[in-house]
Each structure stands twice: as C-alpha cells, then as structure tokens.
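Working notes for the structural subgroup meeting. M.R. asked for a predicted model of this chain before we commit to crystallization trials. I am recording the input and output together here so anyone reviewing the notebook later can reproduce the run.

Input as submitted:
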Amino acid sequence: MSNRKLYWWKSIVSMGLILGSMPIVHLVARVLKDNYDGTQLLGAGMAVGFVGMMMVVVGVFVKGQTRQTLLGLIGGMFYWTGWVDFLFMYYAHRWRTHAEIDPTTGEVLSRPEYLLLPATFGLWAMVMLLYIFCSRNACNFLNWWQTLFLGKNKRLIVARPMTRHTSIVTFMEINTMLWTCYLLLMNLYDPQLFGRESPVTFGVAFGALLSAPYVFRKQLHLQSWGANIRMGTATVIVFWIAVEAFNRTGIIGKLIAHPSEYPWHWMVMVIELCFLAGKIVKDARAKKEKK
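Returned structure, recorded in token form:
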C-alpha cells in the first residue's frame, strides 16, 4: 500500500463536497421547521423525503459512477431528513413526548425526536442481520462482524454480493451509518445505561477521533471519484461522532480543569493511545516484511 499513489486533491475535494452538502440539507430542514408546524411540517417532511428517494432512483438509471454516487449521497441526506428526522419530530410533538432537560440549568439536552430513536434498535438489528449473513461487501465494519460470527464458513455462507447499484449502495451506506451513529450516541447519553460523563462515552468519542485519520488514510488511496466520495462520507461521520460527543458532554474542558476527578477517563485515553501506538508499530513491521 505504501507504493500506491495518494490522491490528496481528490480526497480533499470529496470531503469538501460532503461537508458542503450537509449544511445545505440542514438549511432546507431549518427553513421548513421555522415556517411550518403540525400537519404542514409532516407534509413538508414527506415531500423532502420523496425528493430524496426519487434522486436515488434516478441514480440507478444514469451513467457514470460519480453521478450515481452523488445522487445516492444527496438523495440519502434528503431521505433521512424528510422520512426519518421530520417524521420522528412530527410524531414526538403530536404525542407530546418530552425533551430531556438539564435539571440544574433548564437547558434542553436532547430533543424529543432523538429520544425516540433508540426504539428502532430492533429494526436496525434486522437490517444488520441481512447485511452480515446475506451480502459480500467491502465494508470493514461488516467484514469484521462476518469474520466474528461466521469464521471459516464466511465464504460459504456469504457466497456472493447483492445486485450492485452505486446509487443504492451510497444511499444505504449514509443512512445506515447515520442510523448506527445516532443509536450509539443516544444509548451512550442515556443515564440509565452509561451517561454523558461515563468513561465508556468518552472512550467511544476518543476512539472515533483516533479512528478518523485511519479511515481518511484509506480514502487517500482511492482513485475513483465515486469510491473516494463514499469513503469520505465514512471519514466525516466517524469524525462527527467525536465532535458531537465532546461538544455535547463538554468533557475535554472538565478533564483539563479537574483532571483528578476523572481518573477512569485518563486511563481509557492511555489505553487507546497505547493501542494506537501498537497498531502503528505492527503496520510498520508488516511494511518492512513486504519490502
């Protein structure tokens, strides 16, 4: 891998494209949320989701992997915003689901629609079951689970990939990644499970921060625009986990201001840094052996 060309310009443009398209979708959502409510908001959300779905479907028929990827990516964002985010928001408000409020400051910690997301765990597990047992693919996350569950029988049980449409693949990738990350974060924030200041929550966030450069390193080796954009999506979302968790918990400032009050957090940090150092040394030795 060390002898392969690094596509810095292509990777940076891909990241910029993803980071630029996300605020546009959020801006559309914000305008609709500020100007509509009740059934009007439901109708607006259904329209946004439908536009996203149609973009993905059109992507199946157009020529060129880059165009297919872009239609799947942007269509997936509109789909998530309209048919997931807006629908959860509508029903949370309709049935008067309460937001999570900080008892001390009165600040809203989590909006009602996000508090309902963990209830979709069973549906998420069903989708993962399909991918793990019925689809050969290039996703490192799914390949790790397939190796764990299937072992030597992996090639026998997962014999072939599904029919591949780049637009659909991109659409499913961004939505399943968003879904997985929201489930992960909301369960970590839940005080009955872990809590915002839990060492586990900190460990996941810090691990995501350390993992993002590794995902980006893999992205640098991808020559195809389509593949580079899709890997860029993974890079952004993994990094977003760290940014979101650190921003939501404010744990970094607390660690600096009161280090003695968080011994487990420092221990988690040291363990993860040692693991990273071991990984770097192992990779360096593997490269030497190949030479």
